[in-house]
Amino acid sequence: MSARDSILASIRANRPAGDYPLPDVPLFPPLVGDDLVAEFGERLKRMGGLVCEAGADDPLAGVRERLAGAKVLASAAPEVTGNRNLAAVARAQDVDDVDVAVVRAVFGIAETGSVLFTQDELVVNSVAYLAQHLVVLLDPADILPNVQAAYRRPEFGRAAYAVLHTGPSATADIEGVLIHGAQGVRSLTVVLLPRAKA
Amino acid sequence: MSADNLDPNIRDGVIHPEVRPPDDESERDQDGRRLRHAEGASKPVRAPAVREPQPRGAKIRGNRPVDQAEAAERFLAAPLHQAAHDERLWDLRKKRDVAAHGIPEWEELRDLASEIKTHTLSHLDRYLEQFEAAAKANGVHVHWAADGAEHNRIVLDILRRHEAKTLVKSKSMLTEECGFRHFMGAEGIEIIETDLGERIQQLDNEEPSHVVAPAVHKTRLDVAAVFAKTLGTDPDNDDAHYLAERQRETTRPYILNADAGMTGCNFAIAETGSVVTCTNEGNADLSGNVPPLQIHSIGIEKIIPKVEHLGVFIRLLSRSALGSPITQYTSHFRGPRKGTEMHYVLVDNGRSARLGMEEFWTSLKCIRCGACMNTCPVYRRSGGLSYGATYAGPIGLIIDPTFNKRKYSTLPFSSTMNGSCTNVCPVKINIHEQIFAWRKVLVEEHQIPVLKQGMMKAAGAMLSRPAAYRAAIGAADSALKVLPRFAVYNSLNTWGRKREMPDAPRQSFHAWYKENRMKGGKA
User: Fold this and answer.
1) Does A31-192 carry CATH code 3.40.50.10420?
2) Interface pTM (ipTM) of the complex?
3) Model's pTM, two decimal places?
4) Which intervals of the chain are annotated as region Disordered (chain B) (predicted)?
5) CATH number of the domain bearing residue B188
6) How far is B194 from chain A, CA to nearest CA, in Å?
7) Distance CA A44, CA A31 (A)
8) Where are the domains of chain A?
């Protein structure tokens, strides 16, 4: 008998007695107030992320300094032109020299300050971790109230890879000291910038 | 005054100001408020003139029973380590309380999580088949392993077929169960742990001592000593930022050059065939997204039916573990990247047998948050390595004996039975009741010493029946008055030693609850 069949047989033989129905999960009221943009920003900041409003003259004013400081800038968003074409990257490792990566988020979550990407937004998945800094463009209209609402979105059933980022890479593994940039990006900045109208 | 609004120039609220650069970006948010996500508020360890050596774990002597109390004595005899450990974990427990109290439906979420898990476990064959079919449809190779040895052989086989010599991995308690690193080392495969805490433990040739914080029993001085020896860092520099940065710099080349990457699994979704990992460092995403070959090791109990159920579990997991609303990264791997291969290894390793243990099968609900460890007075004061087993703390006491009844026969006695573990468990495992049930089983099967057996017989008859126990407490005011004194204080009960038990409350919690909360027939 294969391991598969013997494991399944053992599970069937050992099935716990009793009836354990699958509960319906009610939709809980959001923990956040009506101003989703403010709630999102507040929670993201508490998780070590940075937030900036789009500037009136220059939507990217808040991150201009960060972008200008990058020797290698990889952008997966049309709003920013980088000097590394992600579509032409052959190997996941090749983006290790990226200083700043720019990506558009699918949506944000006010309850936690999270943003979602799939492989489509990232183009090269690894750039969101190998880059030193991550700049995220998020349309304020794309902010969902809570985690429950997020998990009703179709991306999780469709995308080969879907990931929620909540602030930058962090660790507290040495005596509880909080350190950003444990393995992945050292900073994550969300720019609240509406999507370009198609 | 709120510590959150401190002038950025005043560093009173900062942990270890003496070793932190004033421009440290991890310290404050953009509004200048102190950041605390995942951080400990425990006091820094002051280095004495002579460095206190790190107390080591339990002495393993083959199959002989682990002497947890002996290892715990050595941990208690290292006051710096003991105090730092105790404070750090108690701080996590308090942060968990704050996070839990911030959600009105917290108790309802715990009930739902428990019910979803018990439902899935009682239909596990069906959900595993559904998961397998979905994963295969997504282009994932699915393997089944009856035990740890088979898991290791399957992974080795995959690596050999790809001529892979190096593998980067994120933290996985399952691979600890399987003895994965030791096995691969002997086969000439280089394994690199990418979680900082786990990397520290790997470099020090120790097991993880905590399911979430693998090196929590070490001070930064211990880490400095380990890194000086293995990574060539400055032995006199114990700045946590310096140490973490050196680890980042030395691990990055391994990540870039690895032939294969591996992660564990927090949740496996039956309807989509996805594997979900939760990390703060992003190291599971590096392991899964950089090397050309990715492998995910999955304990078969990690299955949940639907994506929408993550809306329950993700809300509970990090709040229970660290008190943060979510981990920095919640990653959903569903299919391979273009031009790469993706493999799942579904591992039983005793789980299907545990399913048939009437009193213990619900321990399979565990989502490995570590809350029971953080709240446990025995764990906090003895360190995870004192248990000499893959799983330490309260959850370890009820899981470890399923792997080896003789070797872990004494572990269920390393508990004060205060029930705090049960109260904080996000999936409502009746941990302390299972600890007691294990004591009974081990006595009946003659796995424990004769003196302890006598103590158990005296207390056991009553403690084994909750209703009788409550009736007895009501009559005598307190369990402490009911239990024979020698069951609480004797040389075999390590946790009665050095402690006089508290005065018994005049009204038991159950009595209070019935009086105040069950009025009108509403619980």
Assistant:
1) yes
2) 0.98
3) 0.87
4) 1-63
5) 3.40.50.10420
6) 8
7) 15
8) 31-192
